[in-house]
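Issue 218. Parser rejects a valid record. Input:
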Amino acid sequence: MINFFRKIRFDLMEKNNTSRYLKYAIGEIVLVVIGILIALQINNLNEQHKSKKKEVKILSEIRNNLVEDLEDHERNISYIAFKDSVFNHLISLLNSDLTYDKSLSKNMMNITVAGPHFNPIKTGYTTMISNDPEIISNDSLRINIAILYETKYLWLESILQDIYNNQNAWFAQIFLKRFKNIPNTSTHFEPIDFDKLKMDHEFNSTLAYYRDYWKNGIFERYKGFVTDVQSLIDSLENEIDEIENQ
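Output the parser choked on:
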């Protein structure tokens, strides 16, 4: 093709046809420019394709991390719900004329141990941050991802750590003074004197405080937190589908 254009140029020069030569030269320049623009466009499309492929990979990894986290959250919520049922059963007995229900002994540890724990999986988010975060082209989605990891997850980790510290103190100071371990078990406890425990204002008020703290301060907020995680998973899946179908 180059030889073909060169031959035309030489023919025009030999014929001393300056006007036609100039027109041809301009046309050749235009063709070269068009060729360069086409090459640049193809290169841009290739780069965009690579960028979108990387974006989908990061979004998919974040999505998979959150799905695993969600399973952890749901186990924690189930544990907190069970913990609440033990609190309520014991409080109900303490406020009644009934005797101690020995079936509670095997579950008594659940109102004293700190738990639950949460260790988020952050590999996808770390990958996003280590690259240019703006590789996530959807601004709203990128902001919501950052809010979850930098604000909501930090709150959850902080509050559970605070509970761990306070619950351990309460267990040592309040519970062990009033309950005894059942022989041949490691986690079964029963009151030393249940009738006396009913009249124990310090124990009953502390028990009610922690029951309400878990129920209203943790359980209800945790459920809302899980709803936010599920909503973000849905948004990630929608974004992935949209990018792949472009």
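Fixed in the parser; the record now loads. The longest strand covers residues 179-181.
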